Amino acid sequence: MRERTIASHFVRAALRGAQRRGLDCQPLLRQAGIQDAVLREPRARVDPAQFARLIQCLWETLDDEYLGFGRQPSKRGTFAMMGHTLIHCRSLDKALRRGSLFYGLFPDAPCITLQREGDWARLSVDDQNLWDPDHFLVESLLVIWHRLGSWLIGQRIRLEEATFTYAQPAHASEYELLFPGTRRFSAGHTSLLFHARYLDMPLLQDERTLKQFLQHSPADLLARPDAGDSLTSQIRRLLGRDCQQWPDLESVARQLHSSPQTLRRRLREEGSSFQELKDHLRRDLAIYHLGRNDLDIQAIAEQLGFSEPSAFHRAFKKWTGLTPGAYRAQEG
Question: Is the pLDDT confidence value at 332 over 50?
Fold first, then answer.
């Protein structure tokens, strides 16, 4: 769902390279429509469109697609030129390898490698040349290359595993959207593992579709949550956007060909619950509507199924640390 929201951690992390370069980030935040209060509140979240705008603003201001995290900047247009070098490849294997060779031409660029491991393929990023304290750029590169590969062959590449050389961070629960599948921390490589059959698939894109794709990428690739096949993603799709007509647990279990008991157990194993999923979906829908001025706060509360605005205010403050009014208020 496009209403999936992004934790404030990633906003703070995205700004670290610009701050290191001595840039005043307040104008960039205002351009992206992100309130300063969001940075100060660990529970706060932003709309994906706001996050994409922030990334675009950072690229334009720094003229650096590495956002200030590399030893050398990667000038704007580098990603687009890489796209043009690989768009005529016959298979995904050749495209990813050509893209890797392209970035290998630049000194101090993070090294991207593709290896076959029997029936599996591993895409790795070596970040030893980066100043990347929050691992923001290396994670962004993994997300962008995964989604670029999926776009090239016209189907989502299902991830078997994502591995990271660093310890599990406090915001690890957010990784389900970025890297659906098994996740291992303190591993030997920062990498993605997927079935090698994808590598033999032909590219379904051409220069015309690439031109459209590059109008919003890679910022959109980074900001758009994965429409994955995890249990929580499936349930969110079944719940839909009409909070007043949500199906109950028994109905959702039937649609997933499961029993309510099994569904509860599987959600528990994923560290979640049916009620928590509904709360998170309400939270994300609230942020989606508050970021647009099509509905007033009372109308949003009604649409989300709250009997009175005060109940919505309390719930939103609990979810994000901010009131709906504070979230919507524009600065400066």
Answer: no
HSE-CB at 251 with a 13 A cutoff on CA atoms is: 6
Q: Is the pLDDT of residue 1 over 70?
A: no
Task: Mention every residue, 6+ apart, whose C-beta is less than 8 A from residue 287.
Answer: 3, 5, 45, 46, 47, 320, 327
**Checking DSSP bridges between strand 182-184 and strand 159-163, what pairing results, if any?**
parallel
Do 111 and 74 touch, CB atoms closer than 8 A?
Answer: no
Distance CA 99, CA 83 (A): 8
Q: How far apart (Å, rounded) are the C-alpha atoms in residues 18 and 313?
A: 34
Please give the structure tokens belonging to residue 63.
């003229």
8 Å CB contact between 124 and 191:
yes
Q: What is the DSSP string of 278-290?
A: HHHHHHHHHHHHH
pLDDT over 90 percentage in the chain: 53
Q: What is the CA radius of gyration of the chain?
A: 21
Contact 45, 322 (CB under 8 A): no
Q: For the chain, what is the mean pLDDT?
A: 89
Are the C-beta atoms of 21 and 68 separated by less than 8 Å? yes
Tell me the whole-structure pTM to 2 decimals.
Answer: 0.77
Virtual torsion, Cα 139, 141, 143, 149, nearest 10 deg: -160
Q: How far is CA 88 from CA 134, 144, 151, in A?
A: 35, 19, 14
